[in-house]
Specification:
This protein is an alpha/beta fold. It folds into two domains: about 140 residues, 3-Layer(aba) Sandwich (Rossmann fold), CATH 3.40.50; about 100 residues, OB fold (Dihydrolipoamide Acetyltransferase, E2P) (Beta Barrel), CATH 2.40.50. About 30% of the residues lie in helices and about 30% in strands. It is built from seven helices and 15 strands. It has a five-stranded parallel sheet, with helices on both faces. A hairpin with a 5-residue loop joins strand 9 and strand 10. Helix 2 packs parallel to helix 3.
Length: about 260
């Protein structure tokens, strides 16, 4: 049986850098077919859905929709490699094994190492890794001028009323199908709920990573709203200051409360 050639997408707002990376890949990985080149994040998302490549090389900093936001959209549907000018953060990420990085200008040795890893993963038919925690880490590490400004207000529906809710009043967010259910407090401190017509993963990238953390596949919590955490061997529970609800912490996120 003939194995299908691997495919890739390159997204970078600088055309010369896109072409340079494509040429380097052609030399280092001849069997790889670059099926699409995107000029910005929105185009990268559109071309990914049209071509469904195996690997995506994403510039971290693109106008409009950043490479991090594109990565959140792709999720586990492709192997991701970030391309960035911030070498210090790249070194730290490689050391932690969190993300695959290439630093501009791309060095042949580093590209060869990355290609070797990608080939091994594709040959072994390994699924793309879960990148959510790593992406949150990346956003927190980038210089301030490279990060999207965190949300200060969230537009939410309560009945027939559209509200602008300050993020500091939000206790937690919970996934609700394609939407997100927001648990917040009004000016008197009374618990309220509202529905946001945005998926949790899309809201998460816009929140301050120093204040909001994901603790479960479907739950994000405001650290300032936590009263205490009770831990078990494989899970934990979050008790809130102003609400009766108890939020689950899945095993993947227990490390966030290691000292508790």
């Amino acid at each position: 049986m003939t194995r299908r050639a691997p495919t890739a997408l390159i997204a970078d707002d600088e055309p010369l850098l896109r072409e340079a990376l494509a040429s380097q890949l052609a030399r280092e990985w001849p069997e790889l077919e670059v099926v699409a080149q995107a000029r910005n994040g929105r185009e990268a998302i559109r071309l990914f859905e049209a071509c469904r490549p195996d690997v995506c090389f994403l510039d971290v900093r693109m106008p409009g929709v950043s490479g991090v936001e594109v990565a959140r959209h792709i999720g586990r549907r492709a192997h991701l490699v970030f391309v960035t000018a911030y070498d210090r953060y790249a070194v730290e990420a490689f050391a932690q094994g969190a993300l695959d990085y290439l630093v501009k200008p791309v060095e042949a040795r580093r590209l060869a190492e990355t290609v070797t890893r990608l080939r091994e993963r594709l040959r072994a038919a390994q699924p793309a890794s879960e990148n959510e925690a790593a992406l949150r880490w990346l956003v927190a590490q980038l210089p301030g001028d490279a990060r999207p400004a965190p949300l200060r207000w969230i537009r939410a529906q309560t009945g027939a009323t559209l509200r602008l809710i300050p993020v500091e009043n939000v206790d937690y967010l919970r996934s609700d199908a394609k939407y997100t259910r927001l648990a917040w407090r009004d000016d008197a401190g009374a618990p309220q709920e509202a529905l946001v017509r945005t998926a949790l993963k899309d809201l998460l990238v816009q929140l301050d990573p120093g204040q909001f953390v994901q603790v479960h596949r479907s739950v994000v919590v405001n650290l300032r709203a936590i009263l205490h955490v009770t831990r078990g061997d494989e899970s934990a529970e979050i008790h809130l200051k102003a609400r009766r609800e108890v939020l689950p912490v899945s095993r993947s996120y227990l490390h966030l409360f290691r000292q508790m």
